[in-house]
Design a protein that fits this description.
zinc ion binding, alpha/beta, 339 residues, metal-binding, Quinone Oxidoreductase, Chain A, domain 1, 7-stranded mixed beta sheet
Length: 339
């Protein structure tokens, strides 16, 4: 089967940073589905895992944690899927990724692809949707059925992949007032298209930016970019007893005194936690992907795909990785079809 992988961790400009490979097709067993991959998307996690480091792999490392495709075989313990089912998923960071024609993935973290989206449009969503959903509704404990209607959330990095779907979930399901951050005309327009009520500039002091749009402080903050850089502004902008969720690890110690004084909380979101630790509630990712499929098919949510590159091969993946590393992409970049 065609695959794209690496043996060395090299700068993306190096032709061997990602290589076209021919690998043996795997066999499904246990809870695994064997999926014929139709489309994939690239996330910052791909570039971070691939980033230069002094290590060499004896077996090819296959990246990719977003895919849509068709089930072609199932393991003996599979109960929720059959061959021929169209599916979508983000996968498991501890296993070979989706940059292959065929991939094994545990059925408990796989959902049924939305019927109203083709494979490419749907491939933009799984990882970012799981991340945003878990951050908002599980980590921040926001009611997804309007229980917290009217409360405010600041989403730092609104035009990125996670931000694009987080704005929609916070606005359309939770009915929050959504303040997103962006700094360029194109990213501001994208956040507004996704449903943000206000857009503020993350290159300025965010606490002051929030006050400019009429909010002294906010109930929730979702940080999707540089926890270290935004930490002082976040602790200033969060309300007493509010909650901050971040998906970005910190490099330096975080001063917790302001949170202590406000009895405010900090929580983390890492969407691979359930699969990495084989938690008892792994199936929640299947359930949320199926719920989001229904929301897309009913017109509540829309794809965040903003560019589709064809075909899937090493050269195109290197190009997309380079664009992600520049840090100014809008929405998601998808790759579809094997050449």
């Amino acid at each position: 089967m065609k695959s794209v992988g690496l043996y060395q961790y090299l700068p993306i400009s190096h032709p061997n940073s990602l290589q076209d490979l021919e690998l043996a097709q795997p066999t499904a067993s246990g809870h695994d589905l064997l999926v014929e991959v139709k489309a994939i998307s690239v996330n910052p996690v791909d570039t971070k895992v691939r980033a230069p480091k002094n290590r060499t792999e004896t077996m090819p490392k296959i990246l990719g944690w977003d895919a849509t495709g068709v089930v072609v075989a199932i393991g003996e313990k599979v109960t929720a899927f059959h061959p021929g089912d169209p599916v979508w998923y983000a996968g498991d960071i501890t296993r070979p990724g989706s940059n292959s024609e065929f991939q094994l993935v545990d059925e408990r973290i796989v959902g049924r692809k939305p019927q109203n989206l083709d494979f490419a449009a749907a491939a933009a969503l799984p990882l970012t949707t799981i991340t945003a959903w878990e951050a908002l509704f599980e980590r921040l404990k926001i009611g997804r059925n309007s229980e917290d209607m009217g409360k405010s959330i600041l989403i730092i990095g609104g035009a990125g992949g996670v931000g694009s779907i987080a704005i929609q979930l916070a606005k359309k399901l939770a009915k929050l007032t959504v303040i997103a951050t962006a700094s360029r005309p194109a990213t501001i327009a994208w956040c507004q298209k996704m449903g943000a009520d206000c857009v503020v500039n993350h290159h300025q002091n965010l606490a002051r930016e929030v006050t400019k749009v009429g909010y002294e402080q906010v109930d929730y903050i979702l940080c999707l970019n540089s926890t270290d850089h935004h930490w002082p502004a976040m602790t200033e902008a969060i309300k007493p007893q509010g909650i901050i969720c971040t998906i970005v690890g910190n490099r330096d110690p975080l001063d917790m005194n302001e949170l202590k004084n406000k009895s405010a909380g900090l929580v983390w979101e890492f969407m691979f936690t359930r699969s990495k630790y084989q938690t008892a509630d792994m199936v929640k990712q299947r359930e949320l992907l199926n719920e989001v499929s229904q929301l897309i098919d009913s017109g509540v949510l829309v794809t965040t795909s903003n560019d589709i590159v064809r075909p899937i091969n090493a050269a195109n993946l290197r190009s997309v990785h380079a664009r992600i590393e520049q840090g100014n992409t809008i929405g998601k970049i998808v790759l579809a079809d094997w050449n």
